[in-house]
Amino acid sequence: MTPDLDMLLEMGFEKVRAELAISKTGELQGALEWLEANQEKSYEDIIAASVAPTYADDDPDAEPLPLQPGEIAQSLLCNDCGKKFRSQAQAEFHASKTQHVDFAESTEEVAPLTEEEKKAKLEDLRRKLAEKRPGMSQQDQVDKKRNEARLIHSSKRGRLLTLGQEIRRKSTKQSQDIKEELKKKEQLKEAAAKRKEKQDELEAKARIKAKIAADKEERRLRAEKDRAEREGRGAAAAAQASAAPTTSGPAESKPASAYSDSRLRLQTSAGNLQKTFPVTVTLFEVAAAIMQDTGIEVQSFTQNFPKKVFDAVDFGASLKELGLVPSASLIVK
Predict the structure, then answer these.
(1) CA 112, CA 76: separation in Å to the nearest integer?
(2) 216 Cβ contact partners less than 8 Å away, ≥ 6 residues apart
(3) CA-to-CA distance for 142 and 134, rounded, in angstroms?
(4) How far is Cα 266 from Cα 328, in angstroms, rounded to an integer?
(5) CA dihedral sign of residues 42, 118, 92, 77
(6) Closest CA to 312 of 290, 282, 291
(7) CA dihedral for 216, 218, 220, 226, sign (positive or negative)
(8) Of the candidates 165, 163, 144, 166, which has an alpha carbon nearest to the alpha carbon of residue 155?
(9) Which of 49, 178, 228, 331 is found 20 to 30 A from 143 (Cα to Cα)?
(10) Alpha-carbon dihedral of residues 199, 200, 202, 208, nearest 10 degrees?
(11) Per-residue pLDDT tens for 61-109?
């Protein structure tokens, strides 16, 4: 590294900026001026600006001012402000900073800075940097607080979004559970309604059968009475004939509602069972009795004639309600 670069690094300048300043100006004084002029700019902006066209690119046909015969150019002179520069790089930097474009070669040599001038220049630059650093530090703190506030806001917003999603998920699950519960209740109500309808139908059939049997018996008695009158038998004989049932006539059958017990023939995988239960016993109690006797867990009962399947929905109904009176044959599954 050059002594000028070492001095800039000791002053606290970034290495990339110090190297760029030396490469653009060629010596310490110009580098200090360049660093002072560009201290507010970022390194990326400086690099982008360095590839921008200079005054020479704007006027490609411009010719340098001619020297007088025998003269040697010692410096470059800005005709706009009168400043002299020791190198082409210093003049280009001045042009980019001030937008001055009128330069000429000069025979006057620009004296280098003395040690005292260098120290004074460095002290002035240190003072300016020291004055700007507190402000930059305060701005950094403001930016840090602003960034922290943004992070806190983003975190709170994320938590709120997560909470909202959790609430919606729970609400959806609760709605689904309520719908499932209502569906089950509707199914139970429909099953109960079907059982009641079936029971009403069975009772209606039983009433019709009883009425038919009563009408048949009434016709039989009337026929017996007419026959006795034709044969000249007395009323007492007719009454006796009416009271005694004939061997040829059908025996009177009781309606299902008149029975208090039901005989069940149960076909299980462990063998056949013959059991008698009160008509008020439910299929669930029958299944429990089979479980106790055989250890078989009953899932359903099947009746072959008429073809019916009694599953868990029907287990709450009694034998009387299911029409399994006075007897029935069931296959246990």
Answers:
(1) 14
(2) 250
(3) 12
(4) 9
(5) positive
(6) 282
(7) negative
(8) 163
(9) 49
(10) 160
(11) 444 444 445 545 567 888 888 887 777 777 887 888 788 888 888 777 6
